[in-house]
Design goal:
Elements: H1 7-39, H2 42-68, H3 83-112, H4 119-146, H5 149-176, H6 182-209, H7 216-227, E1 234-243, E2 246-256, H8 261-278, E3 282-292, H9 305-349
Parallel strand pairs: 2-3
Antiparallel strand pairs: 1-2
Length: 350
Amino acid sequence: MGSSMSAEARQRLISRAGALTILVNLTLTVARGAAAFLSGSTAVLADAANSGTDILATLVVLGGSRIAALPPDRNHPYGHEKAEPVAAKFVGIIVTIAGLVTGTGALQALRSGGEPVGAIAAVVTAASIAAKEALARYLARLGRRIGSQAVLADAANQRTDVLASAAALAGALGGRFGLPLLDPVMGLAVSGLILRMGLGLYWQAVRDLMDRAPDPETMAQLRAAARSVAGVREVGELKARVFGPAIHVDCKVSVDEDLTVAEGHRIGKRVKAAIMRAVPECRNVLVHVNPYPGIAPDGENRAGSGAVEAKARRERGAFEGDLGPAGAAGADAAAHAWQQGTEGHMDRTS
């Protein structure tokens, strides 16, 4: 998961990265289009079109992140963070389609024998490879830093362009040096890598949408934080789910049964604060407070009914000691008379 920062700061970083990505891809689309026109290379023209689809993928990421940053409302009381994995899912589909298109082009090149590449097209393609690789690395670092699956998906999408362009350039240059089969073979290999990447992005997004649990290290941090709070005798069931860039936690803790409700509530609030400090990605923590050692299925304390009865006898003894023998007998008679009158009243009104 990413580091702790405000939603506004996180959104500013994503918007800045999105603007940079769109600018780079727009520049590459124009440069590749011009190189394709001058050289007559359909492969470079296809790369230009691919840069255009990369802009679409970035717009999807930006839209998803903006929706995810919206506060909870009546229709979405848990927030909108799942918009990010939805955007990542769409990017996964785009990457998968790019893999299929690359594979189709490789098969066509295998049948036609490939296409030579001119000097201008080669220079532009090499420059675009360097630019897209630098962009992909930047987006990958940012995505890991802020814990955004959508940004990580966009980074993977930029890298598919690098792989496809590198394969096309290597294959075309291989054709010039007497290796005509290098182009389609490289294209098919890269197509397989892109397909694997796209399907991986899609599956990761599906897992996030299905409320997957955080990694074991994060779960251990959550349990340790709850156990560290003074007054917690036992940490019971602890569940957590990834909710876009956030984590939602349900935790059961046990406190001494003799504590008041207010005291148990205060301990529960301290558990929530400790968990959110230990794992800043936690947006919502629900703490359920149980008595320790717990309640048996029949409703009696696990320590046994004898302990409960002994406590009742001690309290009754103290009460009788305050009243004296005569006072205690009078209190019992008054209680019996009240019970009889209440039962008679119920018989008359039923």
